[in-house]
C-alpha cells in the first residue's frame, strides 16, 4: 500500500498550474500574458494602504466573514452584504461551489457545464473534486451554442454551469438573454463569471434574485488588485448562507480586507484605472487590426485574442524581443492563437513594434 492508492485518480491526471516563471527570464519583459491591469496603484492609493496597514491587528484572526469588505462591495454593486461570499480569488469561489454542489446525487458524479474554450480552472477544479466536466463547444464566432447547451442541460442535469462573460480567452461577452434562458433551464446553479465585467459594459448583477439559480462571480484581480487575491460571488442570500458553511473560516485575510476596503473607499481612482485599461485595450485592438497577417477577435475585456500563422514561432520570436504574451495554440478552435493583455500605451506600442518586425 502507498499513499498513491489513496489519491483521487483524477489528481494524477491534473497538471500543475504553472504560469511563466518571470524569475528565469534573461531580461526584463513586457508582461502581457496574465490579464492583469496595466497600471499600478496611484501614489494616493498607496498612501491610504500604508495608513490602513498600520491599523491591522496582526495578532488577531480576521473578521470571520470579511463583513466590512462585503458591505463595501455590496454598496458598489447595488446588492445586500448577505448576498455576498468572498474568496481568496475567484478561483477559491469555484472550489467552494464544487465543495457545496459537486457532491453528486443518486450515486452519480456531479456534472459541471461550460462553453469551451474558456477559463481552464472550471475543468481543473471540477476534476480535482471528482466531478465530471461537460464542455460544450462555442460556435464559430465564439458565441454560445444555446441549442447544444440546452440539450446538455436536459441530458446531463448539471449541478453547476459557468459562463465567463466576457470570456477568457476569446475576449467577447455572451448574449445576456441566452445566459438567462440557460440559467432558467437548469435545476442547479448557473454562474456568470464577470471577471472582466468591468471592461465589457453589461452585467448580470441586476438579475440575481430575479432568475432562480443565477449567480454572478466577480474579482478585484483585473482592476489593479491582483496581489490581494479577492473574488466575490453574488447570489440569493439563502444559497450564499449555505456556501458560507463550506468555505474555510478566515479564508480572506485581514490585510486584503483592509486594503480592499481602502481602495473601494476611493472609487474614483479605481474607476479611472478601469477606464484607462479599457482605452488601452481599444488601442491595442485597433493596432492589431492594422496588421494584415493577424485575425483579430473582437474583445469586451482587457485582452485581445489573435490568430497568426505558426503562433508558437511568433510567440518565441516575441519573447526573444522581450514581449511576453500567452501562447494558447493547440488543435481545435484555438489553433494558432495568442492572447495579448492590454498594456500601457508604451507596452502596447512595444508589442506592436515587435509583431511588425516578427511578421515582416
Ligand atoms: C474568467 C476568469 N475567471 C476567474 C479568474 C480568476 O480570477 P482570480 O484572480 O479572482 O482568482 C480568471 C483569471 O484569469 C478568469 O480569466
UniProtKB/TrEMBL annotation:
Its cofactor is pyridoxal 5'-phosphate. Keywords: Amino-acid biosynthesis, Aminotransferase, Histidine biosynthesis, Pyridoxal phosphate, Transferase. This is Histidinol-phosphate aminotransferase. It comes from Anaeromyxobacter diazotrophicus. Its EC number is 2.6.1.9. Pathway: Amino-acid biosynthesis; L-histidine biosynthesis; L-histidine from 5-phospho-alpha-D-ribose 1-diphosphate: step 7/9. Belongs to the class-II pyridoxal-phosphate-dependent aminotransferase family. Histidinol-phosphate aminotransferase subfamily. It catalyses: L-histidinol phosphate + 2-oxoglutarate = 3-(imidazol-4-yl)-2-oxopropyl phosphate + L-glutamate. GO terms for molecular function: histidinol-phosphate transaminase activity; pyridoxal phosphate binding.
